[in-house]
Amino acid sequence: MAQLRWALITGVSQYGTGGALTEELLGHNISVIATGPTLKQLEYLNPNRIAKLEKLELDVTSPDSIAAAVSATERITGGKLDFLVNNAGYGYMMPLMDADINKIRKNFDVNVFGLLAVTQAFFPLLREAKGMVVNQASITGLPGLDQPYIGTYSASKRAVVVTLITGDVATHFWGHIDGGDQGIPDSSPYLPIKAYVDEMMLGKLKPKGAKNAAEWAKSAVKDLLSSRPPARVYRGFLSTTMRWVTWLTPTWALDWSFASSTNLSKLKTMLKAEERKGRKKQ
């Protein structure tokens, strides 16, 4: 009888990339330990395949929670882990000049430091199985794609561009972000273009064409399970396109493009007009 292969996935939810990866890996007869901050968000999962499915509570920012998950995983798998998928993420969208420092810290605590803490804790089990670490990153973290208004999120994703560089995927991510629903504050330097910035932070202005999560997971898992998996997996809408764009396009051209397409140039013109008007009154 073939030995079971085990994957542990953080941040699993029904309509997200973690949930899609769980279903796809189970479909490849890879047993999965699905984890999330609460077991309630994992209730929808049903073990209806040959591969085994286990559910664990795991808060990637809590040392105690991580230690408990490692102990439980050792019991479940017999002390090994073939895949660790660092999928858990936190989205705080806000222009950097308006951002709450504590919420920026939470972005990094989950998206960077939590990822590293989990990887360190599970490394002995991965080493035992000669396993693979898969980090969920984003095209927003690619050099040159310094998109205005969501720097708080992009900065945390740039810190982990290692394996899964994911473009736009049709999930419920934008329904759970922090900051966007409140909009920019009245003290924001972007207030003259508030309507645009608020829509950007809510994900309402993203281009059409995103794959659904199941399609994305199928492509990503195929790459990960290949005999020679690439160091970086570009999947999701515009991920490959943006890879080439950032490689071929000078940074100044990307900056100009974002300034023009995100109303920063318009804001500059408006502020200059107000400045001239103020000088005339003096």
UniProtKB/TrEMBL annotation:
One of its GO terms (cellular component) is endoplasmic reticulum. The keyword Oxidoreductase applies. Keywords: Oxidoreductase. Gene3D superfamilies: NAD(P)-binding Rossmann-like Domain. InterPro entries: NAD(P)-bd_dom_sf, SDR_fam. One of its GO terms (molecular function) is triacylglycerol lipase activity. GO terms for biological process: phosphatidic acid biosynthetic process; triglyceride catabolic process. Transmembrane segments: none annotated. Belongs to the short-chain dehydrogenases/reductases (SDR) family. This is NAD(P)-binding protein. It comes from Extremus antarcticus.
